[in-house]
Design a protein that fits this description.
homotetramer, mainly alpha, Arc Repressor Mutant, subunit A, Tetracycline Repressor, domain 2, 2 domains, 10 helices, DNA-binding
DNA sequence: TATGAATGAGAGTTCATTCAT
DNA sequence: CATGAATGAACTCTCATTCAT
């Protein structure tokens, strides 16, 4: 890890924290610079604009999430176990990374979120999507549209993570397992 | 309906449309005024500030939603039917009012959403919460925290409504009924 | 006193209080209306504009002051006694009416104060000026320009009244008399 | 003198001129920027707000005035000569710097003038106050409250300077000396 | 690479004034 | 006479972005 990517990461981290706390609108570039301990100008060396910075942050968080999911992937297991593991990992990742979950959620709910911004992450998403497709074809899970499945897994997990971060619900391992079970039962055929 | 509440409503409507399209940050007060066909200054006659305007919009949408849910309420039916009807109505309301669903979702994902902003709506939410409580006690639905139940019903419905509005998924009556059935099966004991 | 002049007076009184507390700039017409217990619009029935309202207030305060001075006037006394009494009354009036003193001072220090605004009060000021002129000619007081004499009497008194109102100095009767004596000694020949 | 303090000074100078001409209320930040030949935004780099700018201007003028008075200070002279010189310098400084005198006067007559704003200048005022204190104790000048002495010297000088600037009175050296003599005679024991 | 002073457009908000009622 | 909703220009202040150093 060289100095360049260090500073880039520091800026991204500062942006993540500030936007989660104050929203897109409440997060001025000058504040990001102060939080990151760099000058305002240098941000424009690493990112084209504020919009670009936010998009890059989103992409990097999606990339990290997808890497975490792929790491748990085991092709030697049965497809049912693979899918089950996938859903479990999605839940656990969101709950373990509430800052990331919160940002992704806020981003997706905002006008920053366009088809274009998502197409860049297709490469990371593809393996997971194709796994889900296979499971549908083999009759392991219900034949629902991908979007519906994504909502019931990814989005539900992210929402619960945020509610947990906000102190609105207590989530112990037992409850998490129960929820994962409920979702799995709801999706499986 | 007198002129005063008319203009107030017009301003709220313009705010809803613009914020859904451009986000909180992308929606200037002057644009709201232009969209509503009023002067910029008069907004401050009806609302204290931009933040207040947004909060009032949120409150009014929550109130409308809750009224819609209460309208479908029938105490003569069995509790199971009541709960089932409630979940169905939540889905249908969100899908029928995508603008409201989208705004509520964006609001809840933003730093505007605080405990304080929700406490004002407690009066509308209470009857529904108590109905769910009763269902839990009578063993009709699973004994999950209210927040988890809210995520699996209200938030899932709102998310699907937005995905539908964004053209990401086709939701016909058959599919809606299937999803309602899935959620109901997941929650019932 | 009819209702019309009542309301006019109430508006003037509200303006006096608010401007002394918040300055010209900090005193909106709507606040004057609220303080006076009238609508914003009606002020424009009694006064042409905010500037006019402020000018009329200034004029009315100058008129009251001058009337107070003229009331103490006694042509049967010696000129020396008349002048001495005049200076004493100026002091006492300012100290007894700190709100008026404060406003006049703030007005005179502001760009509202023009030659034009003063010319309207010439009728009230004339008798006093001519009395001072006579005293100068008869060698009772020093032959200083009128402006210098006004500063050493009127303005000094107003300043002391304001300092007293602000709690910066304690002014008992003894001290007031001492100051009056000092000023008189300084001006007399 | 570096560029930073240059621009700060230019802004302060522009503010002084405009406020003397148009008052606090009539002096918009945008006008100050234009007069100073800078952008509107940069003022907020040097000053927190309009209020802060005005306070800083007041403080800098008080500081300059006090430095001018201290420069004329000569401890080797008799206390009587020191005091006399002080009063003379106050007069001459005010008459030589009518812009400063006018602003200080307008500021003191406005609601901007608070105890807090003055406490920041105590360090500059202290030496002069203690000199006056000593003179009172030694029976050189009358035992009047400091505020009264300040009014009769500082404020009278500032008022005369403004009247002179406004063309209301002609002040030649002879007259100035006469007035200084009158004030001195009034204060000395 | 890195800084931070500088820009200027545009934000939210205020307010003197008007006018239909 | 009286109201107060309505206007819209002008205000203070912010902020993404640039650029000389």
């Amino acid at each position: 890890m060289n100095k360049t990517s260090d500073k880039r990461s520091i800026i991204l981290g500062a942006t993540l924290r500030l936007i989660n706390e104050n929203g897109f609108h409440g997060t001025a570039m000058s504040k990001i610079a102060r939080e990151a301990g760099v000058s305002a100008g240098i941000i424009y060396h690493y990112f084209e604009s504020k919009d670009d910075l936010i998009l890059e942050l989103y992409n990097s968080l999606i990339k990290e999430l997808m890497n975490a999911l792929l790491k748990g992937f085991d092709n030697s297991k049965s497809l049912e176990d693979q899918i089950k593991k996938l859903f479990e990992d999605i839940f656990r990742y969101n709950l373990a990374n509430p800052q990331a979950a919160m940002f992704i959620r806020q981003y997706k709910a905002s006008p920053y979120y366009t088809h274009e911004s998502n197409s860049q992450n297709q490469q990371y998403i593809d393996p997971i999507v194709s796994c889900v497709q296979k499971a549908k074809k083999q009759g392991i899970i219900k034949d629902l549209p991908d979007t519906v499945i994504a909502v019931l897994t990814m989005d539900v997990a992210a929402l619960l993570a945020q509610r947990y971060s906000a102190g609105l619900v207590e989530l112990n391992d037992e409850l998490i397992n129960e929820i994962i079970g409920i979702i799995w039962d709801a999706l499986k055929k």
